[in-house]
Amino acid sequence: MIRVENVSKVFRTQRGDVRAVDDVSFEVPTGELCVLLGPSGCGKTTMMKLVNRLLQRSSGKIFIGEHDTDSYDVVTLRRNIGYVIQQIGLFPNMTVEENIAVVPRLLGWSRSARHDRARELIAMVALDESLLERFPKELSGGQQQRVGVARGLAADPPVLLMDEPFGAVDPINREIIQDEFLKMQGQLKKTILFVSHDIDEAVKMGDKVAIFREGRLVQFDAPDMLLAHPVNDFVADFVGGDRELKRMRLVRVSEALDPRAPTVGADDDVELAARKMQQAGTEFIVVLDEVDKPTGTLLSHEVGGSGLCKNFQHPLPRPLRPRDDLRTAVSRMFTLDTDWLPCTDENGRLSGVVTRRSVTQTLRERSRPSQHGSAQHEPPEHGPAEQT
Ligand SMILES: Nc1ncnc2c1ncn2[C@@H]1O[C@H](COP(=O)(O)OP(=O)(O)OP(=O)(O)O)[C@@H](O)[C@H]1O
Ligand SMILES: [Mg+2]
After folding, report:
1. Closest ligand to residue 163's CA
2. Distance (Å, rounded) from C-alpha 14 to C-alpha 182?
């Protein structure tokens, strides 16, 4: 949908040339969100402005769909590309509602359609409807920024450019808006270029992440691949020393279930439990009731002799759910000082167990170079239940 081919932008200044974007190529398929990430001054904003032709590129080509952006007249081009600018840039003499509805009004939407759209969007960015009547100067910086996001989305453009859209929003509200935005994106499947400074935001939001340094594209990859295989020290430093922990946010518990987890019935004898643990090579076994709901656990060193499992069992550690992410799992393992946890489905039946080993192996499997470039990023909280 967005194809950037060997694009460069040189600013000619009195103090010499600034190569703000340097021979950059990448592609964002329809419906994907690509995060442009990198330190201040690396060319992110410049790259965006080349897409909607707020800046004229020095060389290279940019396509939207099949068409060279040069072949559109600039008004049509910009109407098809929502733009959330870095400096917010609300019109001070218009109310919040009028600001949001700027493009719909240009497009001739009716008053009531504009009003409905404004109300819908103000809710999406987690602001109160009463703010619609206010003027921008009566809002905080973070609130203004959210109005800017709503304005960029107002006319439902297929392509969006968002330049640090949540940068001025406090961490709690930022998480809320990010989640709302991902939910919306899951339905509407816009094609999005999204600038961020923040690796956590990039990993959470991006189907792909493009890391820039001094105008050059250093790495373009799915978040998991970026974290698992940074191409050089610059990227490794940028993504941070805790990159394996960051990867855990991208993987669901359902992907890391250990199929060998042994189970035993509550009315079975502990001798059977001991045998099963030995066969499976585990230190624990999950005790199930007659409808496969886990009721407790037994540990291998405690099951000498005989008797019913239900009379020996310990309480079960609080179970995980298949859609939890691995960071939740590992964090709970640390808290409870255990190296395994059960996972139950919505009916309370055992789905399997997660072990420290299954976590490590899952992360290793996912980062195999053979999968390079094909890893799908589906945030655990929002993606479909099954992942192939
Ligand atoms: N109009 C201009 N004239 C000259 N140089 C410019 C101009 N606009 C940007 N630059 C330079 O181009 C480089 C890239 O700027 P750009 O705004 O794209 O950075 P950025 O990655 O968006 O940074 P930030 O994260 O701080 O917003 C910088 O060195 C900047 O000083
Ligand atoms: Mg910028």
Report:
1. 2
2. 43
pLDDT at 116: 95
Q: Compute how many other C-beta atoms are within 10 angstroms of the C-beta atom of residue 162.
A: 27
CA–CA dist 44, 138 (Å, integer): 30
Q: Measuring from each residue's beta carbon to the nearest atom of ligand 1, which residues come in under 6 Å?
A: 11, 13, 18, 20, 40-46, 86, 197
Domain boundary among 245, 269, 298: 245
38 and 94 assigned to the same domain: yes
Q: What is the pLDDT of residue 55?
A: 95
Query: What domain count does the chain have?
Result: 2
Expressed in angstroms and rounded, the spacing between residue 172 Cα and the centre of ligand 2 is 23
Q: What is the DSSP letter of 58?
A: S
pLDDT of 245: 92
Atom 14, ligand 1: residue with shortest CA distance: 43
Cα–Cα distance between 79 and 73 in angstroms, integer?
A: 10
Chain CA centroid to CA 256, Å: 19
Give the C-alpha separation, 330 to 357, whole Å: 11
Q: What is the DSSP string of 194-252?
A: EEES-HHHHHHH-SEEEEEETTEEEEEE-HHHHHH--SSHHHHHHH-TTHHHHHHTTSB
Residues of the chain with pLDDT under 70: 259, 369-388
Say what the pLDDT of residue 368 is: 81
Q: Out of 46, 83, 163, give the residue to mutate to test ligand 1, the one with the largest number of ligand atoms within 8 Å of its CB.
A: 46
Q: Give the whole-angstrom CA distance, residue 19 versus residue 289.
A: 68
Residue whose Cα lies nearest atom 18 of ligand 1: it is 43
From the CA of 213, the nearest ligand is 1
Q: Probe ligand 1: pick from 10, 11, 22, max atoms within 8 Å of CB?
A: 11
CB atoms within 10 A of CB 305: 10
The two tokens of residue 7 are: 């694009």
Q: Are residues 266 and 214 in the same domain?
A: no
Segments forming the whole domain that contains residue 176: 2-245
Q: Which of 245, 264, 294 is the last residue of a domain?
A: 245
